[in-house]
Amino acid sequence: MSERVTDTAAVEFRAVTKVFESGKTRHTAVSEIDLRIEHGEIFGVIGYSGAGKSTLVRLINALEKPTSGTVLISGTPITGVPESRVRQLRRDIGMIFQQFNLFRSRTAAGNIEYPLKVAGWPRAKRKARVAELLEFVGLSDKARSYPDQLSGGQKQRVGIARALATSPSLLLADEATSALDPETTGEVLRLLRKVNRELGVTIIVITHEMDVIRAVADRVAVLAEGRIVELASTFDVFADPQATPTRSFVDTVLHIKPSAEELARLGERHAGQLVTVDIDDEHGVGDALAVAARSGVRFEIVYGGVSSLQDKTFGSITLALDGDPDAVREAVAVLTADTLGARSERRTA
Length: 349
Fold this sequence. Notes:
With 349 residues, the protein is α/β, with parallel strands linked by helices.
């Protein structure tokens, strides 16, 4: 086993591939994954069903072993080491699940206390830790309630408290909000941000919901067919998605850029030329439109929206420009030069 290195990541994948074999069938779940997740960040992993998300999280806690490559936790390999070492490393990893996975026969307090019993904590210390965690997640009054007496959000709060019981430095949240309604999802995500902010826990959020990524993640990896197709800050992924799967995910949340079909319909309803431009805090359209107006170009916003994320503003608007053809061409040139990018749909007047 190699020694710890300096400047370690919370989790690191080095050329990790996982192949499942069943008879003559081979399925590559993840392929050549290189990834660093830094200490103290909330890192999102998103992908459609079958993209490799579940395999990725199971590789982190060594429930699956890679076919090739190495997974490291805080600089220490969790692959290719004795099982006793794996168990030791797992103690620093908490896990929360989509279906909560609570013991129905134990109270909320009993569920939180269970991993402390397994770890051999003395009774008085266990009770104090459980009380502390129940207060932290806002459930002090539910200590003696059983899971069947709790709402979905309360169950997940118990799950989070249980995952934090032994003070892990890493928390894995595998589709942790998929079974919850939007309001309860927001409450749970705010709690995860509190865990990260106040306790300094690194959190990896596995999800297929872009709203979850937008709400909590600092950075995000987009998985497709077992590969990372995009890796960037959450702002950059939303403001300027590069990969096709990423754009599909972003479109499910923002709905700020018209599809080809929508552009065609807009072209039927509006005269002149349509142009879609991306904007952010440094790139706007005000000056360009003022110049265009002085040249007699008429314009109308026909689609789009503006959002904020990580204290930055971004968005996209689609404009219909009408007037003298030369003036319209000049306006489009200025707009596409001054903004983040544009795509235009020309129609014959």
